[in-house]
Amino acid sequence: MIKDIKYITREAGKIIREGFGKNFSFEYKTNESNIVTEIDKRAEELIKEFITKNFSEHSILAEESGETINNSEYIWVVDPLDGTTNFAHGLPIFSVSIGLRKNDETIAGVVYDVMADNLYSAELNKGSYCNDLRLQVSSEKNIAHSLAVTGFPYDIADNPEHALELFTKIIKKTRGIRRLGSAAIDFCYVAKGVFDIFWEVHLNPWDICAGQLIVEEAGGKVTDFKGNSIGLSGTTILCTNNQLHDTMIRELIF
Ligand code: IPD
Ligand code: CA
Ligand code: CA
């Protein structure tokens, strides 16, 4: 099945790459910061057509069109374009993210960093890869030597879960914080050992599902801010190289 997920993730990536830098139509979602382009929709349609044709009995949860619920133990969790704001502004950092869950457990995840042409993948208990290269999280134990990444939700004006105060606090503790604009790529960079820490409030299942498995299979940890495991409904995540997890839980107490 991982071969199928990799195949369709790359195919969706082709649509996005061809659309990058061209004119496209878009609509507002919840507010003027939150847009969806015709390319997000076309990529999602392609992925859904593939699943429906090849795995017709499976359920699907996809960002732009919602749920297709069948009586199946399998559900595909799809973000057709993670990093839409970057895409729309010509910044080449965005991805396609597809996770596959069986009986409430993620068994496979693929994230395609479209412009870098890097395909990240993981299967449960089989490790994580970037293309053919096995991934391993960093071994950094000292938060003062760590590089962190975070993101901000589209409702940041309401400062949910004290997101702005947390940013101000954590930036003073780490070597630096980056904001790439694609949560799925943020996870992959933790899996790769580039970032030691990633946290964010108000994510959605399609931002998390594939990336979480990729991090865990590379030796990292993903929980909520209190250290509890997150299921498909979790929105607030702390993702680390494992070594810095307890330190970050203490820092995230507000
Ligand atoms: C967004 C990106 C971003 C994160 C936002 C997400 P989208 O997803 O992952 O990095 O900060 O919270 O909503 O809307 O580009 O698919
Ligand atoms: Ca997303
Ligand atoms: Ca998206």
Please give a structural write-up.
This protein has 254 residues and is α+β, with helices and mostly antiparallel strands. The chain has two domains: 2-134, Fructose-1,6-Bisphosphatase, subunit A, domain 1 (Fructose-1,6-Bisphosphatase, Chain A, domain 1, 2-Layer Sandwich); 143-251, D-Maltodextrin-Binding Protein, domain 2. The chain contains seven helices and 15 strands. It has helices spanning 2-19, 38-54, 84-89, 163-171, 183-191, 205-216, 245-251, and strands at 26-28, 35-37, 59-62, 66-68, 74-82, 95-102, 105-113, 118-123, 128-130, 133-134, 147-150, 176-178, 197-200, 221-223, 237-240. An eight-stranded mixed β-sheet has the order 4-3-5-6-7-8-9-10, with helices on both faces. α1 (2-19) runs antiparallel to α2 and α5 runs parallel beside α6. The longest helix has 18 residues, at 2-19. The N and C termini lie far apart (42 Å). The mean pLDDT is 97. Bound molecules: D-MYO-inositol-1-phosphate and calcium ion (CA) (2 copies). The site of D-MYO-inositol-1-phosphate (IPD) has 13 residues, from β5.
